[in-house]
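Hi support team,

I submitted a single chain yesterday and got back a structure, but I'm not sure I'm reading the token output correctly. Could someone confirm the output below corresponds to the sequence I sent? I've pasted both exactly as they appear in my results page.

Thanks,
R.
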Amino acid sequence: MNQRLEQLRAWLEPYPWAYTTLTICALVMAAWLANWVTKRVLLRGLRRMINSLPLGEPHEIRLRVIPRLANVIPAIVLSAGVVAVPDLPEHLVTVVRNVCTAFIILTLALAFSGAMDLVNQIYQRRPDAHNRPIKGYLQLLKIVVFTIAAVLMVATLIDRSPLILLSGLGAMMAVLILVFQDTILSLVASLQISSNDMVRVGDWIEMPQLNADGEVIDIALHTVKVQNWDKTITTVPTKKLINDSFKNWRGMSDAGGRRIKRALYLDQHSVRFLTDEELRRMHGFTVLDRYLNDKGREISAWNSDLEQRGIHPVNARRVTNLGTFRAYVENYLRQHPGIHQDMTLLVRQQQPESTGLPLEIYCFTRDIRWGVYENIQSDIFDHLLAILPEFGLRVFQESSDAGVTAALMATAALKQADQRTSPST
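Hi R., thanks for writing in. Yes, this is the structure output for that exact sequence:
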């Protein structure tokens, strides 16, 4: 082999540039061949071997690290083979070797970044991964690695020791702090969020000042992505979760009950005492039977004591339709299958307003899903609004001028009809 190379060199000796060109082409071809063999043979075999392992479905295995490392092979071939090229200036050989070395450093940094992505992907398969996300820490580690790689690449390209560059970083520390100010603040915020368990992937958070109201789908070093209920995505800076206030609905999900807090506004003019006949009719409501019996005994004892003391009957107590309806609503909710009976359940009157007397219902549903929750709430108020007339109560509703306009039009029509039918004078 060496004899043939010597013969080729002797044959091309009158043309030195031709031998140099031929050697460069051979070196480039060797680098390409090394890259082809690595990616087409070694990588395919390695991919088949990994897919055969019980690590999950084949499409879930993403080989990001090894293809990056395969790019190192042609760079090593070029760096080692450029010395063998004859008649190349020494400084050109140095430049080529330095560029190849810098490319190898960059490739290793990119491979490390791919390895961190793979680590995060494997970690997310754990059932408790959403409680303690590590994506922010991995991103910080990437920044450190790329910073070191950048220093080494610059030192290699200028053919100087990296210690010279590192010694100058002390003077640049103030500038670096300003440049990486957001990164430092985001890192501190990520540590506080993780240590205090403030936000997890899958939590429903509400942050009106940033138009965020939905589910957390990603927690990174600098940003937290929230998919709103209208399917838009709001990107919230991580440090905002520490500096600004927000509401996390995780407690509602963990408790297993979703709150209903809504009031019926009743017309105060419809509140009155119930007659004896109405009381007998009210006993037909199964949920009111016990309440009416207990209330009847209580009122009878009160009124008997007043009668024995000779006090005027105007001081006697009677059952009201509003109190009976309030007892009906509470007992109805106590027996409702969609209401969580182990949580707070109240039916209370609030301060009367110009819009009526608020009768507030405060309870929790068993199902926290939005659609089911809305259906339960609507069914309850549909029933209460429909049964109000049975108690002689009315819902307060601000009247519009539609009724007045209709009455005026009807009156005008009657006048016109009377004028047509009246005898002419």
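A quick pointer for reading it: The mean pLDDT is 79. Let us know if anything else looks off.

Best,
Support desk
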